[in-house]
Amino acid sequence: MLFMISLRQFRCAFLALLLVGALCAIAVVHADDEDNFEFTGTISSLPNTQGFIGDWIVAGRTVHVTSATRIEQEEGSPAVGKTVEVEGVLQPDGSVSATEIEVKDNAENDFEFRGRVEQLPSTPGFIGDWRVAGRIVHVTSATIIRQNEAPLALGVLVKVVGTLRPDGTIDAAKVKTESNEHPPFFEFRGAVQALPNTPDLTGDWTVGGRIVHVTPLTQIEREDGLIRIGTIVEVKGTVRIDGSVDAVKIDSDEDENQFEFHGVINSLPNTAGFIGDWIVDGRTVHVTTSTRIDQEEGLVAVGAFVEVKGKLRGDGSVDAARIEVERSAGDEHRVPTLELEGTVEQLPNTSNLVGDWIVSGRIVHVSSATLIRPSTSAITVGTFVEIEGTLRTDNTIDALSVEVERAEDDRPLVPFLALFGTVEVLPNTAEFVGDWVVSGRTIHVSSGTPILTGHRPLVVGSFVRVVGTLRSDGSIDAQIIQVKRSDNTGRRLNFFELFGTVESTPASGLIGDYRISGLIVHTSAATHFAPRDKVIAIGSRVKVVGRLRTDGTLDAAAIVVQGDDDDARDFVDAHYDDFLSRDADDSGRDFWTRNITQCGADLQCREVMRINTSAAFFLSIEFQNTGFLVHRLFVASFGRMPRLAEFLADTKTVSEGVVVGAEGWQRKLDANRQAFIADWVRHPSFVAAFGALTNSQFVDAVLARAGITLTLAERNALVTGLDNSTLTRAQALRQIVENRAFQDKEFNRAFVLMQYFGYLRRNPDDAPDGDMKGFNFWLEKLNRFNGNFINAEMVKAFIRSGEYRKRFGH
């Protein structure tokens, strides 16, 4: 269906559309980049019209000249026999719609174009007929072949200079390989298991069971010590077909050379210097005289939050090399690892309820530091409560907070126990049935356990929420597992987007093994293929989303055909996937495609309409209430913008099943947002930031992160609603992120961020930028033009950039 644009945003879009007529009358001179087709040749025919408007024949090719074509005549007027340089857009029939023609004073007849090598002759010196970007290129012994940028091979980008024959083939005078976009980098960490016996360590290493090829060009960081067998290193490089890695960079970090985890101290030995066995977050930590204990940020005590680094033993305990206190006992922001909802069955006979409770059969330790909401007087035997805290080794719970729960929408309150943690071990079985290890705790998963990935990867390193029953040995029988947003998204998770060219397809049907840009890609019945009407054929340019196996092959969660972004329909399809995280619906696709094709052969009009169509996806109600909502939640909750991996997964979750304009879309969108924000505030990172705060402090903290000020009445209404339980924290947070002043404040910043997320599929400070200078440049420019993306030329720059167009094989 056609998605909608809000009134405020529609005014901006309408203003942009009013500029179309004026802009279409302006001659456009394109920059010398991959958006253009250029060639030089001799005029053999000219139209007998004023200004030479009409069809020219140059080097046997038809050139369409309009009143908007700029004709440079400094070196003479156009005439039959004159040499001209033509710049414009190549049409499917081989003709060129010219944007600029420059008359030359010489008689050179060179034709030049760029493309990927699709076929090479099996002859010495590659003499014979090549196919480059669908065009036949005749190469002889006189052809100069330069391979400075890359070795000549299938798929390599080349520049061909030569003479165009009447049949459209080229006699090549020179062929030069050009710098190609690098294949996607693969990053992983592992222990060094084997090293070459060379002074500079060049040769083949074994890291985490994988062969790593190290050359003199590999950057090896050794600032934190020597690299030896057993050292933990981070490897960045490209994956070969055999699964080995050509290393670009290897980084050794003393901190990364340890097992590390964070947790709350549950118990301490009564010894000098605390030497002996500690219990941290339910895990035994062995402390010796050589253990370094850093107490700059707080003191060692039961309840303190610490970072432990050391060596992991086979029994799950840790030999500590270093322990750093990050927060003293009683400080704010302790991180919960467990969530329990149940009925209070027993309370201590104390005035402030400090002591041991029994909640749904489980002992809960409540201290004076435990936050009880709304108040202790609201809790009696029979009250249903939510408890967030940490699990001791004896399976009792240290409560960080206790909150009275009330049923919503007539849904009954059901007791449950949930553990949050990082996946450390996964069984190598179908559907991951078997025993997992999550943050040191064994999780029993059966074939009947639902695993909800929520558009996130399930791999070692994933952050999960396990709902189940606790056994006496501390393990958990999982009833449901949810993959959640991780605070370390992208660092340790093996999750990627790969843009590549299909080289082979399964023998029958969609399901099976593909070869894409030299890598084997496995698909299954769970793989999503899009768009629905696109055939994945050899030569198709595709985006693969999934994870990398240890053998170097890929498991695809989705394969999306990229099409040709110069084609209006493919351009629109890509925007549905990039901005709305879904396939295009028929009516919406048709509308936005017509928005571009209505310009006919008027190239300037088409360019402006492409810009406006592209911007409309960001301005749409659908994106403003999904992707932009996720952006605002990150800013208001954590004071920062989201990273790409976080943004993609969260946006897919909140937009699940929403097609604006379809029947019931508003109810579906509202239900999604309500459920998403309710889950958001229960995430450990959110609880760590706000869980220990009073309602008044919570409201003020969120407003401070959001950078807005409410009226005193508005602010007090939120606090009062939380105090009397007519509002939940999720509902209060939603009111703040939907505040108009906050939306206006973040609008331009989110618009610029989506240029990187939507078009370039990377973070602003990822390579090749490496910092936020580019982001800040565009934000300053958009602000300077008061959000007018046309005058700022922001959208235009991104959709014409070489980095964006390389996704589609240009």
Summary, kept brief:
This protein has 810 residues and is of the alpha+beta class. The protein has 18 helices and 42 strands. Strand 26 (355-359) and strand 27 form a beta hairpin.
Can you describe what's shown?
The chain is of the alpha+beta class. Helices cover 23% and strands 33% of the residues. The chain contains 18 helices and 42 strands. Helix 4 runs antiparallel to helix 5 (603-619) and helix 7 (627-638) crosses helix 13. The longest helix has 21 residues, at 740-760.
Topology:
Blueprint lengths: L6 H12 L1 H5 L12 E9 L8 E5 L2 E5 L4 E3 L10 E8 L5 E9 L6 E9 L8 E5 L2 E5 L4 E3 L10 E8 L5 E8 L8 E9 L8 E5 L2 E5 L4 E3 L10 E8 L5 E8 L6 E9 L8 E5 L2 E5 L4 E3 L10 E8 L5 E10 L10 E9 L8 E5 L2 E5 L4 E3 L10 E8 L5 E8 L11 E10 L8 E5 L2 E5 L5 E2 L10 E8 L5 E9 L11 E9 L8 E4 L2 E4 L5 E3 L10 E8 L5 E8 L6 H13 L5 H12 L5 H17 L1 H4 L2 H12 L5 H11 L10 H16 L3 H7 L4 H12 L5 H12 L5 H9 L2 H21 L12 H12 L4 H4 L1 H6 L2 H4 L5
Parallel strand pairs: 3-6, 4-6, 9-12, 10-12, 15-18, 16-18, 21-24, 22-24, 27-30, 28-30, 33-36, 34-36, 39-42, 40-42
Antiparallel strand pairs: 1-2, 1-5, 2-3, 5-6, 7-8, 7-11, 8-9, 11-12, 13-14, 13-17, 14-15, 17-18, 19-20, 19-23, 20-21, 23-24, 25-26, 25-29, 25-31, 26-27, 29-30, 31-32, 31-35, 32-33, 35-36, 37-38, 37-41, 38-39, 41-42
Helix pairs in contact: 1-5, 3-4, 3-5, 4-5, 7-8, 7-11, 7-13, 9-13, 11-12, 11-13, 14-15
